[in-house]
Cystatin domain-containing protein (Brassica carinata), 165 residues
Amino acid sequence: MERSDPPSPKRQKTEEEATRYNGCPDDDFDFDSDECSDGEIELFDQEMERSGGGYEIDFKKFRYCFGWRPFHLDDVSFFSDPETNRHFIAKLVNLALDQHNKDNKTSLELGKILIANFHPSCGLTFYLSFEVNDPSDGNQTKPYRAVVRYFPGDIEVVSCNPKES
């Protein structure tokens, strides 16, 4: 539903920030530009490998992120109050955990959401890092990761697995 009233100053600031990459206005990025050097591409590839494929990217290292963005958990940039981005990510993680529990006959529970990154695809693809509590193992906390594709009205869990050490 579209808002007919003007956005609050906080929401307007959040919406403006949601259109930025790494704090740089979109017009500072030209995706067809030669400004993205081979060195930057190599550095980004190394960061993708270090982060295990997009889960925990250090965005401060880059001025060009190839469409990847951090998903700020405590903002309301995608939703109206009172729901925050954190609530939305918790829903995605719980869907992934439900599927994981069903497929693996486990009863893992969401502990804490750590990091959420995303990039545009057909909709948005989220790379989620979080902790689970495992009741079958003395409620021990374990790191997990999930990839979830979101398109309004359609959510697809691509994977949900323990974080590799």
